């Protein structure tokens, strides 16, 4: 199952590996939670994902509405296909919706990226994570904290498998191709001479106050270093609605672009001086590539990126954001190391577990 942008790069390496084995028959379901070309089709093309066998066309909506629609449509697929396993990835609404349908139809659920916890239940993803893990039969984890969290929530140890990080499989598989991207030349950016920014978390972009604070910090940072900001549709919409898009446009050294494809984005990430983000996966990609990352959130469900990697939590305190950005620009930031099993072979380990279990 895939539904939203951060799902595609996790499913792609797994599909590739599953389809190499005669033991498995796969069907790819796309819920359509993300549907714009830049949030969906482009990623299928670049990641070499086959067209989905089922496209549910659910689209945007309030949480209950979106989750409910996915369940109604996905149940029809489960009833028709009678799979042995439903594999869900990540923490989006599509993840919990499909897991819930499967388990109620007596179909086993495998959750990739299980056990991550921000301990912040105002985050919609945290609810999706906790619920999905409770009803999963196989839980594939990316870091040690996940296993501890699952144990605390009473999940049987035998169901949990530490396999590494599928997103890093995809990253390593596509890095060479990404290096050939022309995006940096197109945007006139020198290697290591810019900061890459992404912003889409509701807690940052749905209300005026946090957005204004971040804009204040960005204004300071762009005085020292060029900022490139590919915008998520949610952020683009809110900036316009809250009348803040003008402030961004007036920053001379900040460049706003449309949402980018996978290869262009990875290219920019690999060549950035540092990354400012509120995303989950980007905290991991920067750690894997040893690029400094400042996370514009109060917490992270991926603590290993802070403990071992290049990530630092800066929250929404403008002063702190600017101070840490300056530390990086002045060359005083920590270096990290790549976490255990983030080696590009997570898909193979997942297959080994399936072969033993199924
Ligand atoms: C979703 C996930 C989030 C993930 C993010 C990555 C949930 C609860 N949230 O948030 O965990 O980090 O995806 O991108 O599942 N829109 C488009 N085109 C699209 C999709 C969305 O224009 O293809 C616009 C719509 O106006 C929509 C808004 O973006 O209302 C938000 O989309 P939605 O899927 O509700 O949540 P995301 O913010 O994308």
Report what the structure shows.
The protein is α/β, with parallel strands linked by helices and 358 residues long. The protein is 48% helix and 13% strand. The chain is built from 17 helices and twelve strands. The strands form three sheets. Strands 9-8-7-10-11-12 form a six-stranded parallel β-sheet, with helices on both faces. Strands 3-4-5-6 form a four-stranded parallel β-sheet. Strands 1-2 form a two-stranded parallel sheet. α4 links the parallel β3 and β4. The longest helix is centred in the N-terminal third of the chain and has 19 residues. The chain is globular. The two termini are 19 Å apart. The mean pLDDT is 97. The chain binds uridine-diphosphate-N-acetylglucosamine. The site of uridine-diphosphate-N-acetylglucosamine (UD1) has 20 residues, from α1, α5 and α11.
Low-confidence stretches: none
Strand element count: 12
Largest sheet: 6 strands, parallel
Strand content: 5-15%
Number of helices: 17
User: Roughly how much helix do the residues carry, as a percent range?
Assistant: 40-55%
| Mean pLDDT across all amino acids | 97
Spatial arrangement of strands, main beta sheet: 9-8-7-10-11-12
Ligand identities: uridine-diphosphate-N-acetylglucosamine
Shape: globular
| Integer-rounded radius of gyration | 20 Å
How far the N terminus sits from the C terminus, by CA atoms, comes to 19 Å
**Category from helices, strands and their pairing:** alpha/beta
Strand/helix succession = HEHEHEHEHEHEHHEHHEHHEHEHEHEHH
